[in-house]
Amino acid sequence: MPRLTRLTPDTAVGASRDLLSDLVSRHGQIGDMVSTMAHSPAVLGGYLQLSRAMGRAKLDRRTSERISIAVQVLQGCGLCLNAHVSAARAMGVDEEEIERAHAGTSADPAIAAIITLALQICREPTSITDEQVIALREHGYSDRAIADVVGVVALNILTGAFNLLAGLTPGSDTGA
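^ Carboxymuconolactone decarboxylase family protein, sequence as received from the core. Prediction below:
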């Protein structure tokens, strides 16, 4: 059961009203998370900016979805987990790789290494080593792609934590 109410452009105030109005005019409808985030224009605006920025990430989307799956398993947000599993499937990630992502790994050593990094960023960023970063470069990741992992993790922590706080669960979201 949701703990926070959804807002609409009619019920939101100030910057949140403007943000929601813009989203509704561009997309037709908005999902529960976004409409609930509107209680805080700072959170909603930050989410929208980070989400747009990560759309320009150098990290391959199929890889970032697997990272997102691993992070959401760790965090426990079923709504986000379902969304990232669906996105991974839509991008052609096979079921075995989706299951591996649930377990925080991949059959591809390069993807397994970047997922490991993402989970360390969540759990214990002080454990990241110089050798680990060198190994990621040897797997073909640029410094930009490695840095993008922090953005992917941050976006997942933001959305997952918000959904958990707001009481948003799978099946409760009614739009994008």
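The first helix runs from residue 14 to 27.
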